[in-house]
Design a protein that fits this description.
The chain has 421 residues and is α/β, with parallel strands linked by helices. It has helices spanning 77-87, 105-115, 140-146, 161-173, 197-202, 210-226, 238-249, 260-264, 286-297, 313-316, 333-341, 345-359; strands spanning 5-12, 23-29, 32-37, 47-49, 54-57, 59-66, 89-96, 121-124, 151-152, 178-180, 193-194, 206-207, 230-233, 254-259, 303-305, 375-385, 404-414, 417-420.
Length: 421
Amino acid sequence: MTNNLLIKSAKVIDAKSKWNNQLVDVLIENGKISNIAPNINQANIETFDASGNCISLGWFDAFATCPDPGAHWKEDLISLSHAARIGGFTSVAALCGSNPLPENATVISQIKHASNQCAVQIYPLGLSSEHQLGKEMAEVFEMFQAGSIGQTDGIVSSASVSLRSKLMQYCSSLNIPYLHFPFESKLVTGGVVNEGIVNVNLGLKGLPVASETMAILSDLVMAEWLNVPLRVIGISSAASVEIIRKAKADGYEVYAAVPIMNLAYNENSVGEFDENFKVYPPLRTELDRLALVQGVLDGTIDAIMSNHCPEDVESKNVEFEYATFGAATLPSFFNMTLETFGSDFNNVVSTLVNGANKIYNMPERNFEVGEIADFTIFSTEVNHTLTKQNQYTKAYNVLGLNKTTKGKVIAVVSKGLLHNN
């Protein structure tokens, strides 16, 4: 692997590029794109034959979690990065650390240093509240200086309105995002699945849509009052899509990310108490799922997040009510996305490439000479079976294991280097 590479015969998927839907060769020198043309001949250089498969700019995961440092047997940063490239990502925004938690500059610096050894770029996120309890603000400025690209408590219940308003204002002053998961846990306690027919039939306590929409509406009021952008992660309902759609039409600066599982599955997937489908936010109705899909296609939803949450057997292979929330989604991300969007998949590639950039206030990337060499090379046609041998994650709670689906990420170019899958 070198910083110089010639990619032959790749079909460009980039609606803004003059090369869109064309077969091209891409020359990479010193980690940057130095030439794009129908045919490039370059001697004495590593060559990768894409064989007519698709190429796009590298995909950026808007949110994942990793318990390393801490519970590295569930997932470490190296295994996270390899699972990410199997899913098609070259960059991941991740809340990393369980012991210690990512709540000070020392931990953020440790994660940033460790990520230099990873196959893909891992951008560290810092906790927005001390000990992730939603009561007192964490060391936001210190973590920002150490390299955190955003502050969040992740997929946990909402902090108080008072703390959220302070975080919105303070993070905005630093020009970094405060990412809020909209969930008012005090509205209902003990809920484990969507409130509706399924939870009644299964005898499980439900999580109402109102617990999500109440938080989004209060955030919108605060964002208008403070004159700051609003960024929400983990929306799951049709009602939330409509609130965000109207807010954008009314001129609010709102950005939203949806978990891939809420696009790919509905509440019926819980089936016979399958613990891998016990997730935050909960899987909701088919109407909710379809509204989320449409929200991605029409631009109401800005980004798709893996919401990767690796767990071990002791945490998941227990009775449904006692199982930890979350699923390990990175290895099967591409296949879930392709299955969800079908013939519209190529239209969603721009969301995978630049959606997270909007969330994190980063520059938009373009498929052109001079750009950093960062690519995802994939096929939407070949069959692929996810196995324990090729999943790369250490997690027990992997979605889609031993399932054969269409589509495969052939390789990624990350940090200027080629990584074959």
